[in-house]
Amino acid sequence: MDSYAIEMAGITKVFPGVVANDDVTLRVSDNEIHAILGENGAGKSTLMSILFGLYEPDSGTISIRGKEVRIADPNHATALGIGMVHQHFKLIHNYTVTENIILGNEPRNRWGDIDVGAARKRVGELSALYGLDVDPDALIENITVGMQQRVEILKILYRKADILIFDEPTAVLRPQEIDELMLIFERLKAEGKTIILITHKLKEIKQAASRCTVLRRGKVIGTVDVASASESDMAAMMVGREVQFSLEKPKASFGETILKIEELSVRNSRGLEAVRNFSLEVRRGEIVGIAGVDGNGQAELIEAITGLRHAEKGRIYLKGEEITRTSIHSRIERGIGYVPEDRQKEGLVLDFRLDENLVLKTYGKAPYCGAFGVLDRSAMERNAKTLIQDFDIRAGEGAATKVRSMSGGNQQKAIIAREIELSPDLLVIAQPTRGLDVGAIENIHTRILAERNKGRAVLLVSFELDEILNLCDRIAAISKGEIVGIVDAESANEREIGAMMAGVARQQPEAKR
Q: What is the mean pLDDT of the chain?
């Protein structure tokens, strides 16, 4: 019988009302890069959480290099040589790289004091060995997102992990940083490491992995050889149907300017200038994308446009009227729809029902508000049933479903349905498909493009360059709160935009309007 680095056999894990893993078997060969692919809610993260000791399975066995083990907690997983790089980094920003790496595993000298010098030396050696190029003395808050990810990799290598789990590792990286990460994977593999890669990005599976196991609704659909399987094949296995990767985008028919931003400057929560002298226009029937690495002023820009943050200077106009100082309610009434970056914290009330969430901006109006300000529940339910059908929102109890129990993709569909139902002149959309599978992405992209084709103005902020290139008519690259360049999407490429995101000014003139 073949020996595997990891063999998870017959794993079943049930949460209240949900079978997360249903008799799942996963076999990963030694020194392999193995991808795990599946829709949101397919059970990928649960399966890896079991391997890392965050959950215990209800049934099934785990064997590491042929020896059956019971992984009680992450410390036990670490002792077995298993490390995990989470999608959201676990770093303390005012600590140095070395301090973060040794936290909880500090080396001691003979007097019992923390031997930072020995740790710094070891971190430097590991960085050089794997070509990570990390400064052991740098503060986390002063290094890029891509470099922070390398620190997370160093953290598990420092703990002598030889089985490495990566959860959506490229979610916030620039194209150049993604290429560098793929090279790091190859170096890790060359040093004998075994890698499990959880990702929604089929292109990266093709680039990095040798085999891919596909999950759907908690069950294994199959394991394929990546070299011989097409992206379309894997996507169809994942969602159970054929998926369209590119949208047919009719030629844009631009109208008048809906959003105009003039010399806008905005401070962040620490009082530092996050947006500087920012000027941009978005016309009716146009999608303008903001491309940039996370933390370069995108959040503050959106908050200033929607009224959530005060503008330090400059002006914002909607359909020719200045709205720089107007209230959030006034901006909604004047025609701004907003899909926020964090759907759970800012987009929904998780303990409300679905029908209640779908009228959060209109509950005070007819037909939802009856005599004496009493809510008309039947009208709310009718509205929810219509939007559930129109936007393919999958909710177990229909209109009465508590939003907290819905998958991320269906929560996102609910927000987009609510905002589109308002028929806004301007749709401000932030990270509309972050962490979603290709089926949900296809659905949401189709909806956004349909609004553009109806003559809405759309401002789209996304860290996904494929998304920006696929949807947008023009693309503005932002770095350190300033526009570095604006290009027409038809003539743009990932390399050029990625360079502008890094602050490299475009050589040729900006795209003509």
A: 89
